[in-house]
Amino acid sequence: MKLSIALQLYSVRDFVEKDLRDTLKKVKEIGYDGVEFAGLYGHEPAKIKVMLDEIGLIPVSAHVPLEDMLKAPDKVISAYADIGCEYIAVPHLLQERRPGTEGFAQTIKDIKEMAKIAQKYNLQMLYHNHDFEFVKIDGEYGLDILYRSIPEELLKTEIDTCWINIAGEDPAEYIRKYTGRSPVVHLKDFYMSDNEKPEQLYELIGTEGNEKSEKGKGEFEFRPVGHGMQDFTSILKASKEAGAQWLIVEQDQPSLDKTSMECASMSREYLKKLGL
Q: Fewest CB atoms less than 10 Å from the CB: which of 26, 56, 76, 186?
């Protein structure tokens, strides 16, 4: 079975913010089969669905903050069903909700409840990891506790291969660990000098604070797929073996003096060379 390739639109958010339709056309021209959303950028779901149908892109999934879902579950979740998405993913957790905090137990309960509502709209809930889930609680990673605590039919994985690597684990092995539960895999490449991650890594992607890394520019950067440190041969092999249907390219920030769209194109060209 051939894996389909999508682009997380957060990767080209500067283009999306200017013109969603034109961006979708560019993504299709580059050679992507589908897209993953990270917001609707002021557009109505029905209009987005028309755009996608006309351009010929599949709306695979959407990253939707857990807090947004909790505020208005049916309204928020149904919007992505209206677009035609198959999956909806929790993309990130606030610090007070993460494994190792008092809020983690409530996080598990909340994700489980949102997953049930998603099923009402024929959407499968996913969880997209970072590296902060790799704290051990009684000898078990927080990420594994999350998946053990919520039934597989309610919550499946969206393994982010970059963050798994940064956490010190083998991305391919982690994908295999969840064989049958890994319909969507995030392909993300990076460069990190001396294998030492910056202390303020999340500031690099704009999720926490505004301060810059104290270790200087160039210590860590996201790269187009195939242009960094990841072993994608093993990752792709594991994805197929685990039963993945979609591979989603994500690059949090452009690099190598390229625009975000040029980076997305470089990632797609690399995957084409691998027969994808």
A: 56
- pLDDT digit string, tens, across residues 181-224: 999 999 999 999 876 666 656 654 555 544 343 434 448 999 99
| Residue closest to 247 by CA, chosen among 119, 161, 127 | 161
Domain segments of the chain as ranges: 4-273
In CATH, the number for domain 4-273 is 3.20.20.150
Q: How far apart are CA 42 and CA 262, in angstroms?
A: 25
Query: 53 with 79: CB under 8 angstroms?
Result: no
C-alpha angle 213-13-226 in degrees, rounded to nearest 5 = 70
What is the value of pTM for the model shown? 0.93
Q: Angle at Cα 188 formed by Cα 16 and Cα 173, nearest 5°?
A: 145
The three-state (H, E, C) secondary structure of the chain, written as one string: CCCEEEEEHHHHHHHHHHCHHHHHHHHHHHCCCEEEECCCCCCCHHHHHHHHHHHCCEEEEEECCHHHHHHCHHHHHHHHHHHCCCEEEECCCCHHHCCCCCCHHHHHHHHHHHHHHHHHCCCEEEEECCCCCCCEECCEEHHHHHHHHCCCCCEEEEEEHHHHHHCCCCHHHHHHHCCCCCCEEEECEEEEHHHCCCCCHHHHHCCCCCCCCCCCCCCEEEECCCCCCCCHHHHHHHHHHHCCCEEEECCCCCCCCCCHHHHHHHHHHHHHHCCC
For residues 91 and 74, give the distance between their C-alpha atoms in angstroms, rounded to a whole number. Answer: 18
